[in-house]
Write a structure and sequence with these properties.
Blueprint (H helix, E strand, L loop, with lengths): L4 H17 L5 H23 L1 H17 L6 H4 L9 H8 L1 H9 L8 H13 L1 H8 L5 H16 L3 H10 L3 H18 L17 H17 L1 H11 L10 H16 L5 H15 L4 H18 L13
């Protein structure tokens, strides 16, 4: 499983922001866009994983070019093959599941030879890569560790990579951080014995259940928007409702919707999730503000019987 509930909450948050920013919002249109956006994350995941094949081929080309030199050096004639033979790298290069997805969905990098030459040159100059190549250790853990470092420092934040991603699919610019975490998770998951027939992780643990979760959260937040807006305004002491940041309002409405609509999710889980999201997406003071408002709002909804949890201890 690549996508967890936090990822889905973020996608719903993005979808709701688009909906409430639309001058003539259409809930059906925006929900379709949300569904497409969620599923397109897997395509971006495949696109980013295909980077490893490009780096591998670039490294091979460099070795072959060195041997063709008129006056090759000792290093050209006897190159260090450690990176080319990296077990984790070769898992992605040879994996049937990944290569089939790349071909089927046409997820190849355009005009990429010079781009990846430049990226690989930067990688070769990095201290972690030079230490890796100089080390005599040959282990899967070391191979995974260098791939994680390369991806974090030279791929996920590369401006050319980001530009191509933004050009290819409108949803991907917002998804890069989420999907990059999926790529890193996959690298760390690789085990001895994984080969070209090993399946990549699925997007969802239970696609039907997770799809129902994010659709209900999206639609019901819109349905409850006015009512929850009133509750928030009432509990926002010394604040005019129109002075509350739109991002904070959406996060609080989502939290209240989740508390009311999902009887098996503990209130504490919902509260903590949305406070954490506010730290990333809103102002530095938002988390304290949101925590105070939600505490009061949850108490009111429980007293009115609108929050009903199933399972021992779930009201806490």
């Amino acid at each position: 499983m690549l996508v967890n509930r936090r990822h889905l909450r973020i996608k719903v948050f993005h979808g709701l922001y688009a909906y409430f920013s639309d001058e003539s919002p259409d809930i059906v249109k925006h929900q379709k866009s949300l569904v497409k956006s969620v599923h397109s994350m897997y395509d971006l995941y495949v696109q980013l994983l295909s980077v490893f094949d490009k780096l591998h081929q670039t490294a091979i080309n460099r070795v072959e070019d060195g041997k063709k030199k008129r006056l090759p050096t000792e290093e050209d004639l006897n190159p260090n093959m450690k990176f080319i033979e990296n077990k984790a790298l070769n898992f992605f290069v040879l994996n049937n599941d990944l290569n089939t997805s790349i071909e089927k969905k046409k997820l190849k990098w355009t005009d990429s030879e010079e781009t990846f030459k430049t990226i690989f040159a930067e990688i070769r100059e990095s201290e972690e890569f030079q230490n890796y190549m100089a080390s005599e250790e040959r282990s899967l853990e070391e191979d995974k560790k260098i791939l994680v470092a390369i991806f974090k420092k030279h791929i996920a934040n590369n401006e050319i990579i980001q530009h191509q991603i933004e050009e290819k699919e409108i949803f991907w610019a917002d998804d890069l951080d989420l999907v990059s975490s999926m790529v890193l998770k996959t690298i760390k998951m690789i085990e001895e014995g994984w080969d070209e027939y090993t399946k990549l992780p699925e997007l969802f643990k239970d696609e039907e259940d997770e799809t129902e979760f994010f659709k209900i959260l999206f639609r019901k937040t819109i349905v409850h928007s006015d009512d929850f807006g009133d509750i928030i305004a009432k509990n926002a002491t010394n604040w005019e409702s129109d002075r509350i940041a739109m991002l904070d309002l959406i996060l609080m409405k989502m939290a209240l919707t989740e508390a009311v609509e999902f009887k098996s999710i503990p209130i504490k889980v919902s509260l903590n999730e949305y406070i954490d999201l506010s730290k990333y997406y809103s102002t530095p003071k938002s988390s304290v503000f949101i925590n105070g408002i939600l505490d009061k709002a949850f108490k009111e909804l429980k007293e009115n019987g609108k929050i009903k949890k199933i399972g021992r201890g779930l009201m806490q």
